[in-house]
Every structure is written in C-alpha cells, then in structure tokens.
Design a protein that fits this description.
The complex is a heterodimer of chains A (299) and B (627).
Chain A lengths: L1 E10 L2 E11 L4 E5 L6 H8 L7 E6 L2 E2 L4 H4 L2 E4 L11 H11 L5 H11 L12 H14 L4 E5 L7 H18 L2 E5 L3 H7 L2 E6 L2 E7 H6 L2 E6 L14 E7 L2 E6 L3 H9 L5 E5 L3 H8 L4 H7 L2
Parallel strand pairs in A: 3-8, 3-9, 6-7, 7-8
Antiparallel strand pairs in A: 1-2, 1-4, 4-5, 9-10, 11-13, 11-14, 12-13
Helix pairs in contact in A: 4-5, 10-11
Chain B lengths: L9 H10 L1 H24 L9 H31 L6 H9 L4 H33 L5 H28 L3 H28 L10 H5 L2 H8 L1 E13 L2 E14 L2 H23 L14 H24 L10 H24 L10 H19 L15 E8 L2 E5 L4 H17 L10 E12 L4 E11 L9 H10 L1 H7 L14 E4 L7 E4 L3 H16 L16 H4 L4 H6 L11 E10 L2 E9 L4 H9 L8
Antiparallel strand pairs in B: 1-2, 3-4, 3-5, 5-6, 7-8, 7-9, 9-10
Helix pairs in contact in B: 1-5, 2-3, 2-5, 3-5, 3-6, 3-7, 3-9, 5-6, 6-7, 6-10, 7-11, 11-12, 12-13, 14-15, 17-20
The chains are: A alpha/beta (299), B alpha+beta (627).
C-alpha cells in the first residue's frame, strides 16, 4: 500500500504540493489526474524517492521511500521522459536494470521480447519515441516490481501498443498483485483500467474515489415532461446540471440511478431514462466550481 | 535485498568505465606516446648515449610532477567528471538515477571512484610504460618511480576533488566545465587583479604578488613551487675517434614535495565537503546554473568584484591619457562604477539564465556592490596603512638591491651606514610623490628600485618611475638634486661599480670591452680570475683619486654618443694604428655573482683620465684606442 500524508513541497516560495494526502491500496490501479502544473509529476518524483519533501511523508507498506534501497527495489517507474545512456542498446540498459534490481527477471525479459518485437541490439537513441517508450515498459515490467509508477506512460504509443501495454500491466496486477499508480491526462483511457482515481489541482488532491463509487453516486437523466404543464421544482433531488433541448431535459443528478429514476417518476414525466456517466462527465459535474479547470485536463 | 550500507555498485562502476572508454583510452595512448617520447629524449639523445643512469630516469619522473601531471589530470578530470555526473544536470537523469534502488551514498562513492580511476589510468599508463622502458635500459630508479606514482595519485585526487566539488555546486554541464576550469585560475587571476589594483594607487608599489592566491590555483601553485634541481658536469668521452664532452647528472633533487601532501589533505577535505553537498543537493536543482541557492550570492559577488576590478584596470590602461604611473582616484571611481554594474548584471544574467535582470529584485544588490566598490577604491587610494612612505628599519634589513637606470647593486653586511642612506633616499623619493608627468623635450625618464630582504626572510620591493628636469638640478630641494647627490656619493659609486663589496663573488667574472655599443663593433675577452681583483682595485683607486667622471643622472644607462661620433671601429679592429682611431673612452662590462642564481652586471666608461684602469688593461693585453 502506498500512503502519502500531508505532503508539502515548495519551489522558490511556490507550493507545488500543498498537503497532498492519498492512499493506493495494494493490487489496485490508481489513476492520478489533474491539469498542467497541478503537481502530478512532482508527486510522482516524491513517490520514487527522487525529491525530498518539505513536510509530510511517503510510505510503502509503512516504510519511507527516501534513500531506502529495499523499498526502492520494489518500485519500477516509467517517467514521462525516460533516461537512457547516450550510446546504450536495449541490451545495455537491460544489463543496468539487471544489476540494479535483484528481482529483475531475464525470463520475463525474454518472454516480453515477443510482445515488443524490438531488436535488443539496437541503440536506443536511434529508435522512435514510441519504441523508446516500449523499451521502458519492457525493462520496467521485467523488474518484477511490486509497485509500478507511471507518468504519462502511453504517450507516443500507437493504439495497438497502448492496448497491449495496458493488457500486460493488467496481467501483472491480476497475477502478482502489483500496485500501479498512473498519471495521465487521458480520462477515457484511465476509465478502462483504473479502479481508483484521484484528481489534483493546485498541489492538492481535490478528489479521491473508487470508480464504482463515483459511478454509483451520479447519473445522467433524460426526462420529458408533459406538454403544457408547468415544470416541477424537483424537490429532494440534487440536480448538478440541467439543459433543455426541445422538450428533452438532460439532468446530471447526484443519486444512484435507480433512486433518481424513482424520484423523477413522482412528477409523472412522459419519459425518464438513466444513462451512465463517463469519467469525464463525472469529473466535470463533481467538481462544480472547478469545472473550467477540469475541462482543461479532459482529452 | 541490496545492503543498505553498501557504498559500491559494480554495475554503475563498470557502466561508467565502459561508457567513457574512448576518453580514457585516447588519453592512455597519449600517455604511452609521452612515455616513449620522454624515453627517447632522455636515453637516445647523443649527449646521453653512453651516460645513462638512474638519475636520468629520476630527472624525467621529477620533471613530470610540477607540470605534466597537474595539467593532464586537470584536463581529464574536467572531461570525465562532467560526463559521469552529467545526470545531475537533466531532470530525466536525476529522476532515473535517484529512483534506482541504490543509496545516494552509493551513487556518490561509485561515481567518484569510477571517475577518479578514469583520470588516473592514462597517467599511470604513461608512468608504467616509462618505468618498463627504463628497466630495459638498466636505468630504473625506484625512488623516482615511487615519488612520481605518489604524485600522480595525489595530484589526480586533488584535480578530481575539485572537479567533483564544481560538479556538485552546479546544475548545468556548461557551468560545471566553466567553474572547474576557472577554479584552477580564478584565484591566481584574482590575486593578480587585486594586487595590481591595490598597488596601482600607491606610488612605488608595483607587482606585489599574493602567494596565497597562487596556492589556491593548484596548477599554478604546483608549477610555481615544486622545483627540480640538477647537479651535473661534463665528461670527456671518445666517440668514433672524436673526444666530446658528455653531459652527466650528479644529483637530481625535488624541492617542496610536501606541497603535494598539503594538496592531498585539501583533496580529502574537498571530497568530504562534496559528499555533504551531494547529501544536501536537491534533485530539482538540475538545470540551474548554481545548484545551491546559498552559494549563488557568494559566486556572483566574488566573480563580480574580480571582474569589476580587472575591467577597471583595463579601462584605465586604455584611457590613461595623462600617463600617470599611479591611478587617479577620481577616474578610477568612475571606471569602477561602470565595470561593477556591468559585472554584476552579467553575473545575474548568467546565474539567472535570463537577460531580464534589471528589476527591483536585483537593484539592491547592484547598489550595495557599487557602493562597496566605490568605498574600497577610496580606501585603497587613501593608503590607510601609509604603505607608500613606510620604510624598513635598518636593523631589520639583511640586504638591499638598489636598481638604477644603469643597473643594480647590492648592499649587505657591513654596509649599515649606506643602507641607512639608501633607506632615507627611498623615503624622500616616496614622499616626493608621483612625478611621472607628460614627457617633454630634455626631460629624462628615470627609474629606481629597492628590493629589501629582511632578516625574517620577508621581501619588500619598491619601484619608482620618475621624469627628471634638467633645470631643476639647481634647486637643492629638488628630486633631481637628491638623485644627483645619491649616485655621485663615493661609497655609492663604488657599489654601482660592484667594488668594495664582501657579498659578491668573483667566480663568474668576465670583462668585455665594448668599443662603441650599438653602432660600433664588439670585442670581448675573458679575464683571468687572478687579474679580476687587480682590475677592481685599479677601478677603486681611480674612483678614490676622483679620476672617474661624475655620473650623470640624465644619461645613466646610455652610451656616450659624443665618444662614438666619427669613429669607424671596424677599421680600428683591422688596422690598429688607423688614423681614424681617436675614441677617448671604452665601455667595459663585467659581471659578478651574489648567489648562484643572481648576477650583477657592471659597466664602466673607461676614460683616458682613469690612468690606473687604463694602465692595468694595457698590461693585461687590451688594446685601447687612444686619441
């Protein structure tokens, strides 16, 4: 389990992290979202033990990560801008990972060769950006780490490779109970893979829920009332958003779908239909006043 | 699980070595070539062909220590450390290395060790090759080999420690390289600039060195303080039926070797400091010019002060229309304001990586530094310690070397009265102040220097540039009268001719008679050692019998133009009785030595009236021209 408690980091007087608190359960995939400058990468660098916090703590299974070799040996990461030695081949970087991570599995490395289909003798700098990212995944997954921290991991990958990479990660989670934290702008993609999500803004985690919790708690209703009748006040229903197209009301209601339909039916509508919300929509309406900022992170 | 306490990571070590092999391999080839070149130069040159000994090997080993080893290790350390620690200068590099399951201690130790090994390898390759070659020639020298190896390891450690220190202070590769290079020369340049600036205001005080600053620049400190001395002679050897003199070493010594030990201790301290810097270094400082905020003002202000002073000196040199030997305080204040502001804001631009430095945030610093520099200039110009007019007490003085336009002479033991006179004269010149003014016709440029060696070993130098006016000679209080009296005081005249001095030896005396100097022919001859004293006694007698002409301060050091007129010396040499020969005097130059490394040259215009000298020279076989 990853625990971040009241993490504060200041750069030249600017609080990049302003009391971040989050928890990632073992074996879960946690999606971290937020607009540019929200503090996602800074938080991830703390999670990797790269940055030292001003206040607060970062713990893995109760142990601090900073300069802690046994803990760091259980973490593999793929940052948004992956480092490799200038003249290194895939094999060279494999040797480095192998020398650094005792858990590195050559068996896994060889097994993944087929999935990535990259010549390991190739110099990495001559590979395309997408292929370099694949090499990063290849090596990170070969470390057989308990934790995988990903920062914008699939940027630059084609759709087929994205799917393949996610599939490999999901396999890892299901087979070995790997815990994954992934930062991304792509909410639609996260919706497919994450079971928990957190959204950051201005150096804080402003929302942290399980995906099912979010989806059970909010619904989109399409409602048509009888013609000529005065529209009801909808007392007892928390309507976050209401728009009218012709006679069709589209409402975002903070209730579980069944209760919402039941509550609206009291006003005898001609039609009432519950439609599940996308993650994107949930965030837009959940965040209320932060709507504009949240929109910025939606793809 | 990896050990938490392991300080060494083999994977990282090998990766560093294999990643940078082209660099150290190339330098190793250089070391190999240097070793062969040294070997050839030492053992294959004809002069040494049959005289090879272990001392020749030692000579090569020792001579590597002050120059080759420091320079090679410096160059290597800049390249190697910039590469090994380059990960600190990019965000992706720091994120990668600091997220790896190794501690920062391990990263620090492993990276440093691997870099140090790569600095040492090429130099050791050179040392090893030369050692093997010397063994093959039967001239192996264990002492020299050991001392040289010690110097290689110690000096390389110092250069590595400095490069490491600079690598950790900076956050960009360019600033690391610049700081490492300038750290070698900054202090010695700063010392030169500060001493030039300081002494520039003070009449008579020029070129004072600040040795401490040179020690802070190890390349300069090692080159300037570690001295190799040889004792040698020539042995007659028959080669191919011909007898030739062969150079033979009798002993080779190295002075000040303990300096390397001091630098070694400094290196260890620097590595320890660097270790704590690394511990405290924030990964997010990558891409900053200076990685530690607290260091930024130190670097900014120290570089700005030195740059401002250097700039002001250069400006003064370029714009010194009035030819003053000392700085004009008003003009220098103006220059220093100008150069301080430029230095400060350029420094800000470099550290901040922006040209937008003219704002409220930087203004207080600019104002503070400018006020400080103005105050410093005013304080230095006012000579608060009265250094200009302070002179040593005669009882503290061991020797004084007095330089005039015609040469130098020395006073020492037994010359106490003369010393007092010299010191008093120096004080009067100093009090007279800077009199180097716009040069006019009939004026004479005159220079006088005083080098004191005190009994405590300290050395003090004063040097005065003066312009003399002939019309002032009639004024008894004038500088011209003072100098005229000084150079014509009999004991001083004797000293000018290096006579009556117990301090000078005659080992290297030779007498050269120069008939005419620049425009005439030159005739020279050595003087038998036993005749040297006779010559000096004859000259002394002429001085005491007032037969030598008075010394003219307006023509000291110049040839007697009148004496050269209408004289064809070439004809004289060919036809001794030529009717053209009527030159009334001859110039006579000779040298005496004070210590093995210090020679004094004397020159005498031998006039017909100097009968004692003329007769002796004739007796010695010199053919002097007569009217």
């Amino acid at each position: 389990m990853i625990e971040v408690n009241n993490l504060v980091k200041t750069f030249d007087g600017f609080r990049a992290l302003d009391g971040v608190t989050l928890k990632v359960e073992t074996g879960s995939i946690y999606g971290l979202m937020g607009p540019n400058g929200a503090g996602k990468s800074t938080l991830i660098r703390h999670l990797l033990g790269v940055y030292r916090q001003d206040e607060g703590e970062v713990k893995y299974d109760g142990e601090k990560v900073w300069d802690n070799v046994p803990v760091k040996a259980r973490i593999a990461s793929i940052p948004d801008d992956w480092f490799y030695y200038g003249q290194a081949t895939v094999k060279d970087m494999c040797d480095i990972y192998k020398g650094m991570y005792e858990s590195f599995s050559m068996e896994r490395f060889n097994a993944l060769k087929e999935a990535f289909n990259i010549d390991e003798k190739k110099t990495i700098k001559y590979l395309s950006k997408g292929m370099q990212k694949q090499v990063a995944f290849w090596l990170a997954l070969s470390t057989m780490s308990d934790y995988i921290i990903l920062d914008e991991p699939v940027d630059g990958l084609d759709p087929v490779m994205r799917r393949r990479v996610w599939s490999l990660i999901m396999d890892d989670v299901s087979s070995r109970g790997t815990t994954v934290l992934v930062s991304s702008h792509n909410l639609r993609e996260l919706e497919d893979v994450c079971d928990h999500v957190g959204i950051m803004n201005h150096g804080k985690v402003v929302l942290e829920r399980s995906l099912s919790e979010l989806q059970d708690n909010m619904v989109k209703l399409q409602v048509v009332f009888k013609e000529g009748e005065e529209e009801p006040a909808m007392d007892g229903i928390e309507v976050l958003h209401d728009s009218l197209t012709g006679r069709v009301h589209t409402m975002i209601v903070r209730m579980c779908p069944e209760s919402a339909v039941k509550a609206v039916k009291k006003y005898d509508p001609v039609l009432v239909e519950a439609i599940p919300l996308t993650l994107e929509e949930i965030f837009v309406y959940e965040m209320g006043g932060l709507e504009n900022e949240i929109k910025n992170i939606l793809v | 699980m990896k050990s938490r306490t392991s300080l060494f990571n083999k994977t990282l070590f090998m990766k560093n070595l294999t990643g940078l092999w082209p660099v150290w391999a190339l330098f190793s080839i250089g070391g190999l070539i240097t070793a062969f070149a040294s070997f050839s130069a030492t053992f294959m040159m004809s002069g040494h062909y049959d005289a090879v000994s272990y001392l020749d090997t030692r000579n090569v080993y020792y001579n590597m220590i002050p120059f080759s080893i420091p320079f090679a290790s410096f160059l290597l350390s800049v390249i190697i450390f910039a590469n090994v620690f380059s990960y600190l200068y990019t965000t992706k590099g720091t994120v990668f290395f600091h997220s790896l399951p190794i501690t920062r201690n391990t990263l620090f130790v492993t990276n440093f060790l691997s870099a140090y090994v790569m600095v040492v390898i090429p130099i050791v390759v050179g040392w090893f090759t030369f050692t093997i070659l010397s063994i093959t020639k039967g001239a192996f020298d264990a002492k020299g080999a050991f001392i040289c190896l010690y110097a290689i390891l110690a000096i390389s450690l110092l250069m590595s420690a400095m490069a490491l220190f600079c690598a950790l202070l900076t956050g960009r590769i360019a600033s690391m390289v610049l700081l490492t290079i300038s750290s070698q020369f900054f202090f010695c340049l700063a010392g030169a600039a500060i001493s030039t600036f300081y002494s520039g205001f003070l009449y008579g005080i020029t070129g004072e060195t600040l040795p401490a600053f040179n020690y802070l620049s190890p390349i300069v400190g090692l080159a300037g303080n570690i001295k190799v001395s040889e004792k040698s002679d020539f042995v007659a050897v028959v080669v191919n039926g011909e007898t030739i003199d062969q150079y033979r070493l009798l002993d080779v010594a190295i002075d000040n070797l303990s300096l390397i030990g001091v630098y070694l201790a400094v290196a260890v301290v620097m590595i320890l400091v660097s270790y704590f810097l690394y511990k405290g270094r924030q990964s997010e400082s990558a891409t900053e010019v200076v990685a530690f905020k607290g260091i930024r003002p130190v670097l900014l202000y120290s570089y700005a002060v030195v740059a401002a002073i250097s700039g002001a000196i250069i400006l003064n040199t370029i714009l010194n229309f009035s030819n003053l030997t000392t700085y004009s305080p008003a003009k220098m204040v103006f220059f220093i304001i100008f150069t301080t502001l430029i230095a400060y804001f350029v420094g800000r631009m470099i550290i901040g990586r922006t040209i937008r430095v003219f704002n409220k945030k930087t203004a207080p610093g600019a104002v503070f530094l400018t006020i400080f520099m103005i105050a410093l200039t005013i304080v230095l110009a006012s000579d608060p310690t009265h250094k200009v007019t302070s002179v040593p007490d005669v009882e503290d003085v061991n020797t004084i070397i007095v330089g005039t336009s015609s040469g130098e002479f020395i006073l020492g033991e037994g010359d106490e009265e003369l010393m007092e006179y010299v010191i008093a004269t120096q004080k009067k010149i100093a009090e007279h102040g800077d009199c180097y003014r716009a040069f006019q016709e009939n004026d004479q440029y005159f220079n006088m220097g005083f080098q004191y060696t005190l009994k405590n070993g300290k050395k003090i130098s004063r040097n005065y540039d003066m312009t003399l006016y002939k019309q002032n000679l009639t004024d008894r209080d004038s500088l011209e009268s003072l100098l005229d009296e000084f150079v014509n005081t009999e004991p001083i005249v004797e000293k000018i001719y290096h006579l009556n001095s117990s301090m000078l030896t005659n080992d290297y005396i030779s007498i050269n008679i120069n008939y005419g100097g620049e425009t005439g022919n030159y005739y020279a001859d050595g003087v038998e050692k036993e005749n040297v004293d006779r010559f000096r006694n004859a000259l002394l007698k002429d001085i005491r019998e007032k037969k030598t002409p008075p010394i003219d301060i307006f023509s000291m050091g110049e040839y007697n133009e009148e004496a050269l007129a209408n004289c064809d010396f070439a004809d004289y040499i060919e036809e001794e009785d030529s009717e053209y020969v009527y030159n009334p005097n001859s110039m006579l130059a000779y040298s005496v030595s004070y210590s093995p490394r210090y020679y004094f040259w004397g020159r005498v215009d031998v006039m017909p009236e100097m009968t004692n000298t003329v007769n002796l020279l004739k007796e010695l076989g010199y053919k002097l021209p007569e009217r």
